[in-house]
């Protein structure tokens, strides 16, 4: 009886989560990390760091860690770069200018502009990738550049591709 109750509980939770096998999105078979890194202008030294940057925590991935830590690191690098950029700007409100540069909507658009969709691995309900996942991936790519190449390379990447 206990096993049946546990099974029903799991079925109930997965029903309410709305996740099905069709919702799981792995990287496209045509995705090549080397080609994307060349397109981004970054030659990564750390193996699989770009794949990690494009793996959301919702993806049941086994051996590849999620992009959560890289995204946190990248968000801080982006904030610092946006602050430095805003100091030289003639914008009247420093805080508003920085907030605009690092907004979720802006980062989601940059995700689309950088063509990162083919490499993304995530598992969420619905046919479209939420903007928050896109923004997290952009932050994670910035974090990957910082982790692999240092602040100067990350700052250059941010200036070229994000700001």
Q: Tell me about the biggest sheet?
A: 2 strands, antiparallel
> How many helical elements?
8
N-to-C SSE series? HEHHHHHEHH
Q: Using the CA coordinates, give the radius of gyration.
A: 18 Å
Please write out the topology.
Blueprint: H1 2-17, E1 24-25, H2 33-40, H3 49-53, H4 68-87, H5 94-101, H6 104-113, E2 122-123, H7 131-149, H8 151-161
Antiparallel strand pairs: 1-2
Description:
The protein is an all-alpha fold. The protein has one domain: Ribonuclease iii, N-terminal Endonuclease Domain, Chain A (Orthogonal Bundle). It is built from eight helices and two strands, in the order αβαααααβαα. It has a two-stranded antiparallel sheet. The longest helix has 20 residues.
Short description:
InterPro entries: Ribosomal_mL57, RNase_III_dom, RNase_III_sf. The protein is mainly alpha-helical and 163 residues long.
Describe this protein with a few key phrases.
Ribonuclease iii, N-terminal Endonuclease Domain, Chain A; ribonuclease III activity; 163 residues; mainly alpha; 2 strands; two-stranded antiparallel sheet; globular; disordered N terminus
